[in-house]
Amino acid sequence: MDPADARQPVAERAEKAACAPPHLWEPFFSETNKAVLVAFAHNPNLQERDLLRLLQRKDLPPEVIRELAAHREANRNYAVKVALVQHPRTPRLISLPLTKFLYLFDLVRICHTPAVPTEIKILAEETILKGTAAIPRGEKITLARRATGRVAAALLVTEDRELIRAALDNPFLTEANLVRVLTRENLSPSVVELIATHEKWSCRYHLRLALVRNPRTPFARVLAFIPNLALTDLRAICLDRRMPDHVRKYILGHCAQRLAKKPADPGSL
Predict the structure, then answer these.
(1) Could you report the per-residue pLDDT of 155-174, keeping only the tens digit for each?
(2) Is the dihedral of CA 240, 241, 242, 244 positive or negative?
(3) What pLDDT is attached to residue 4?
């Protein structure tokens, strides 16, 4: 702000900000006084680009954001609504209702914006999940690649192998997400097979445990995983009465062979 403008009384600057024409606005975009900023945010001549420029400032007080959200241009401009939801200081009473009306991939972007409060991200995820059944297959595959791990995991409840592969390649998907997926009763055998053969996921220890426990896992993959599992974990699997008999018998035989070779194994039965 021009030093001469900064020396003006706050009330005078605020009065000027509230009704100034566009050619006098530049100093107000870098204003630091809250009262002046509130007055400027109320200026009826502000357009979409001006509201967006103000919302780029991460230091805006919540009172200023409330004024921007109430501006007539904010009510009719989608980009301003997105910027309001993304701003870290937007009051919850403003951002929560707006989240429900944003487009699919703007919601994804909000989920990945670090400064967005967790509560808003969770609501964005919930909104995405509620709408997945209605979106076209191509968009769903793109969503599976880009969304959060929670959304990608939810999209694994499908028979569509291309969609499954897209979700498994999602960089935000976690081992914990997939362990939970593998406990689902309505899971497609294709999902289990593709996890069990995936270059990244089939190497994870806890996923191997979950896959050995899952009756839909191809037996050849179970045989490949068992030698790398601890005896204590194999014992726990054998105690699970839901395990198919042929798998349990194989594991017991494998454990007996390992114990015979290493009687001092601390993980012995």
Answers:
(1) 999 999 999 999 999 999 99
(2) positive
(3) 42
Q: How far apart are the C-alpha atoms of 149 and 210, rounded to whole Å?
A: 18
């100093």: which residue's tokens? 27
- 152 CB-side CA count, 13 A: 25
Token pair recorded at residue 261: 């070779």
**DSSP of 158-225, one letter per residue?**
SS-HHHHHHHHT-TT--HHHHHHHTT-TT--HHHHHHHHT-TTGGG-HHHHHHHHH-TTS-HHHHHHH
The model's pTM: 0.84
Question: Tens of pLDDT along 17-72?
Answer: 999 999 999 999 999 999 999 999 999 999 999 999 999 999 999 999 999 999 99
Residues 195, 218: contact at Cβ < 8 Å?
A: no
HSE value, Cβ hemisphere, 13 Å, CA-based, for 248: 10
Strand segments (E) across 61-124: none
Angstrom distance (rounded) from CA 195 to CA 98: 37
Token duo for residue 231: 């005896």
> And the tokens for 181?
């997926």
Give every CB contact of residue 163 below 8 A, 6+ residues apart in sequence.
137, 140, 141, 144, 155
Residue position matching structure tokens 């045989």: 223
